[in-house]
Amino acid sequence: MDAHYNRSSECGIIWNDPDLAIHRGFDGETILCDKELILLRLKDFQSPFVHTGG
User: Fold this and answer.
1) 15 vs 40: CA distance, rounded Å
2) 3-state class of 43 per DSSP?
3) Are 30 and 37 in contact (CB under 8 A)?
4) Coil, strand or helix at 13
5) 0.70 cut: is pTM over it?
6) Which residues 6+ apart lie within 8 Å of 39 measured at CB?
7) C-alpha–C-alpha distance, residues 22 and 20, integer Å
8) Could you say which DSSP state residue 39 is in?
9) CA distances from residue 26 to 22, 23, 29, 43 in whole angstroms, order as listed
């Protein structure tokens, strides 16, 4: 790594987004950490990556 950790640059998609329909294999209670609570749904996610073709 060549830079310090920058929390504001973190991004991701929440695993329990209804549009993704991910089945965890159990129906127990889910406890989300603070980091997971700020993740976006797929429909709201704007990728920071640029596709240049190929």
Assistant:
1) 9
2) helix
3) no
4) strand
5) no
6) 11, 12, 13, 14
7) 6
8) P
9) 11, 8, 9, 25
Q: Return the SS3 of 6.
A: coil
Rounded distance, CA 8 to CA 10, Å? Answer: 6
Residue appearing with tokens 């609570």: 37
C-alpha span between 46 and 40 (Å, rounded): 9
Tokens representing 13? 């998609």
Side chain identity at residue 12, one-letter code: G
Model confidence pLDDT, tens digit, residues 13-28: 998 899 999 888 888 8
Q: How far apart are CA 40 and CA 20, in angstroms?
A: 12
Longest dimension (CA), the chain: 43
d(CA 43, CA 40): 8
